[in-house]
Amino acid sequence: MAVVDTASAGGSQLQQQQQAAKSAEPADEHEESAPVAAATAAAASSAVDDVDSHSGREPCCGTKGVRHLSDSGVTRLPGRYVLPAADRPGAGLCGRVKLPVVDLARLREPSGRAAALVTLDAACRGYGFFQVVNHGVERRVAGAMLDVARRFFELPAAERERYASPDVRAAVRHGTSFNQARDAVLFWRDFLKLACQPLGDVAPSWPDAPADLREAASEYATASNGLFMELMAAALEALGVHAGGGGLLGELAAGHSQIMMANCYPPCPQPELTLGLPPHSDYGLLTLLLQDQDVEGLQVMHGGRWLAVDPVPGSLIVNVGDQFEIYSNGQYRSVLHRVLVNSTRSRFSVASFHCLPAERMIGPAAELVDERNPRRYMDTSFGTFLAHLSAGKHSTFLQSRKLINDKNSHNCH
Fold first, then answer.
1. What are the pLDDT digits (tens) for 88-135?
2. In this model, does residue 225 exceed pLDDT 70?
3. Do residues 103 and 116 touch, judged by C-beta distance below 8 A?
4. CB distance 316 to 306 below 8 Å
5. pLDDT per residue over 263-282, tens digit each?
6. Is residue 226 a contact partner of residue 314, using CB atoms and an 8 Å limit?
7. Is the CB of residue 365 less than 8 Å from the CB of residue 297?
8. At 35, is the secondary structure helix, strand, or coil?
9. Alpha helix (H) ranges present in 154-258?
10. Is the backbone peptide bond immediately before 279 cis, with ω within 30 degrees of 0?
11. Counting CB atoms within 10 angstroms of each CB, which of 71, 167, 280, 379 has the fewest?
12. How many angstroms separate the CA atoms of 312 and 127, rounded?
């Protein structure tokens, strides 16, 4: 999870367009179905498509994606992937960070729980990101998920294209870029989206190749969902919010949305000219990221700089989403992050997005609103989020829901 400095974090035209529709492909996901979607403004996309149609080129690069391009041996980046100079990876301030580490073994012990909650709370307030260790997701399960994702993207293009779809609401969807139909500039990433709830109903529709994909992905989805519930319980406790019974945790236990996104970032001939994913934040409550530990790419915006994340062996990366920032009344932060690519090695990751059902309205928790801490956000729903994307506004979604705009707000959306 480099920058730009704070001014350019939301300053260039492309970033404004993409951040206005922010929230990784699950906007592509909930609409398209859920949390990872970020779309570029329709006007910019239409302009590019007009140029393509008048030049005789296909308006889109097809569904074969960047793995196909990389395997074909291209030595120059196709023009549709080249970012404006101000939006390229090196156009800003960069650094490195070791994100706060939350040890679930301590969280599970009465003697260590209070200290672990302090660490979790500080991470969600200060970074919006943390790494979790001793999380209970078996190494075998996590390794099998990454391995089967890697083998899916190694399948022949024709096999993968069986799951290509323009329907962003499809329970299974293979595609490329961020939102291929609307991106004015494409991104160096292929993905496989898997809706995970209810698991027994949707898993039979998942790809049947590789042969062990359904089993491996089902096991990982179950494990990551259990971890999400445990982390939500801890975060709500740290916030001082009633969680059980008729509270948010009970509601989540009764049913919520989970989308898994397997990502492939193959070697890129000119990585300095493009990104794997543009700056975005996630729409939901929490996102859990399983990634290659030896191929870096995730950068997080913090203090006006893009910071490359130094992974802790065996950890999962967790970040706060827009829904949780709203529910926490701004105490927890949903922050921008992006993905860089390289010229020599493929990078694979699996993001598990967790959010409330699409029809559910969400606003600040009653316990977090009083005279000293007035309500900072309007109630919102996924429908509101989609309407914001469709309008092509230049403000980000969270900015559009704010009732109070803090002068010194630390949210660089």
1. 998 877 999 999 999 999 999 999 999 999 999 999 999 999 999 999
2. yes
3. yes
4. no
5. 999 999 999 999 999 999 99
6. no
7. no
8. coil
9. 157-160, 199-202, 213-239, 248-254
10. no
11. 167
12. 16
